[in-house]
Amino acid sequence: MPKFEYVQAMAAIAREAGALLMQFFDRNIQIEYKGEADLVTAADRKSEALIRERIRKLWPSHDVLGEEEGLRDTGSEFRWYIDPLDGTTNFAHGYPVFCVSMGLQKGQELIAGVCYDPTRDELFAAERGTGAYLNERPIHVSTVPKLAQSLLATGFPSHKRHKNPNIYFYHQITLRSHGVRRPGSAALDLCSVACGRFDGFWEFNLNPWDTAAGVLIVEEAGGRITDFSGGKFKLDSRETVASNALIHDELVNEFQQIFAGRGLEPLPDSREYARKT
Ligand code: IPD
Ligand code: CA
Ligand code: CA
Fold first, then answer.
1. In what order do the strands lie in the sheet with 151-154?
2. Ligand 3 centroid – CA 34 distance (Å)
3. 54 CA → ligand 2 middle, Å
4. In this structure, which CATH number among 3.40.50.1100, 3.30.450.20, 3.90.1150.10, 3.30.540.10 belongs to the domain 7-138?
5. Domain residue extents for the chain
6. Ligand 1 mutation target, pool 32, 85, 86, 161, most atoms within 8 A of CB
7. Which residues, other chains included, contact 218 with Cβ-Cβ below 8 Å and sequence gap of 6+?
8. Is the dihedral of CA 227, 231, 232, 234 positive or negative?
9. Could you state, in chain order, the average pLDDT of each consecutive group of 10 residues for the chain (277 residues)?
10. Which ligand 1 atom is nearest residue 209's CA?
11. Looking at ligand 1, which atom is closest to the CA of residue 157?
12. Which residues line the pocket of ligand 1, CB cutoff 6 A?
């Protein structure tokens, strides 16, 4: 194992936050609404408070951007991106697919990331230049060479849902691959690309706290991350395409075709279906 500067301490914090989430999980937790379908629970808030407290003790000068409490900005060159519970909708419904995500940036570079899934006790971690790990064992992206042989994942945003065109991408790429899953935790989706469970993932409008850790973990596992045109991924670009690198050009090319409306398979007409059955 290489010598890590951050991930051991991060892993301990993420495990502690994950244990806290499990105390609330499946216990009829009260749901509050941040938007029409944007849920939050006491578990999200308590988890973020715990993580912030631990970061403040260990790295008092670092800045923190967390989903629930926003940005603490003192001008530090270090910034943490915290999603205290990624997959809140799953969590609130008792569906066990969610995680704690912590990413650390220095200047413009992501330098460390950890995602912890407490339901499976899986801890994904990477530090720049050290490779990526799942429960301390090295992980790598898949070797699937073609989109037609791949399994992918995507997600749909919880706000401004009617403005999101992803259903067309979902339909088109479903028809061109082994299938597209919608697990409900973007951070875990990225980790699943990193360890080869998925060959690719994309989503519109993710926030930096969803992606910071997972992006580094994918890169360190040998994968590729770009925007929808194949350009450099930026934490605030709101376009995320991740893959095992081998299918990346094909996937991005498919995106370009869909944006241009070329070769789109029409969505089947539900009224016509109803008439025939
Ligand atoms: C959500 C999840 C979901 C993705 C949404 C995110 P949250 O995060 O990552 O998979 O599709 O876009 O907002 O709200 O559960 O932290
Ligand atoms: Ca999230
Ligand atoms: Ca969240």
1. 179-181, 151-154, 200-204, 239-243, 224-226
2. 11
3. 20
4. 3.30.540.10
5. 7-138, 147-260
6. 86
7. 132, 141, 190, 191, 193, 194, 224, 225, 242
8. negative
9. 87 98 89 80 95 98 96 96 97 96 98 98 98 97 98 90 90 97 98 99 97 98 98 94 98 96 88 87
10. 16
11. 12
12. 67, 83, 86-89, 155-158, 184-186, 203, 206, 210
Right CATH for 147-260 from 3.40.190.80, 3.40.30.10, 3.30.43.10, 3.40.50.11720: 3.40.190.80
Tell me how far apart the alpha carbons of residues 83 and 3 are, in angstroms, rounded to a whole number: 26
Q: Which residue has the tokens 């979902």?
A: 170
Strand partners, 86: 99
What is the model's pLDDT at position 1?
59
pLDDT at res. 45: 96
CB atoms within 10 A of CB 229: 12
| pTM score, whole prediction | 0.96
